[in-house]
């Protein structure tokens, strides 16, 4: 009973932190698109809540996390308005989006893992839920703001970082049996890989078309 309560608390904390940080990136994207305050809140909410919403729908987890606890909406709105009044202070809002996305990976991927594991999902499903939780909101954000989604840009190590974090977290869970250790290992791995990719411009090789071979 105590373990279940601790797991639920862990998920709430991770989801709350991920919503806030992702909502900040939504606000920054809204600032780049020069939207009004309502637009800021809308984009921030979609970004912060999108991944967790899709995760819960796929896992048939009802009610969806922000419907059960509407304060997640308030957190997203606060993040949006915070950015509305401060975005002009940043030297590069795009760079800030990339780094905040990297930080949010460390919260969203383990949140997805924890929810899936708590519902008894096998490890491939758990890792997939971690990736979805960490990526879908950002994809929706970029599409709404008429940007190419970050996860699809020129070999960006984003989904790769989420996958590696999820795999590391599941391995840690198998060894230790501790959801907290799982979350820490997962989040740390995802953030380190994504941060290294940003700092050192690491990218996956891109597909390059070649002329067909003659038979």
Structural features, described:
With 215 residues, this protein is an all-alpha fold. The chain has one domain. The protein is 75% helix and 0% strand. The protein contains eight helices and no strands.
Tally the structural domains.
1
Estimated helix fraction: over 70%
Rounded radius of gyration (Å): 18 Å
Order of helices and strands: HHHHHHHH
> How would you describe the shape?
globular
Quote the average pLDDT. Answer: 94
Strand content: under 5%
N→C terminal distance: 67 Å
Say how many strands there are.
0
Main location: membrane
InterPro entries: Gly_transporter
Subcellular location: Cell membrane
Keywords: Cell membrane, Membrane, Transmembrane, Transmembrane helix
Brief summary of the model shown:
By secondary structure, the protein is mainly α. Helix content is 75%, strand content 0%. It is built from eight helices and no strands.
Please render the helix and strand layout as text.
Elements (H helix, E strand, L loop, with lengths): L1 H31 L4 H22 L6 H4 L2 H16 L6 H26 L4 H22 L14 H18 L2 H22 L15
Helix pairs in contact: 1-2, 1-4, 1-5, 1-6, 2-4, 2-6, 5-6, 5-7, 5-8, 6-7, 7-8
Keywords: Cell membrane, Membrane, Transmembrane, Transmembrane helix
Family: Belongs to the UPF0126 family.
Subcellular location: Cell membrane
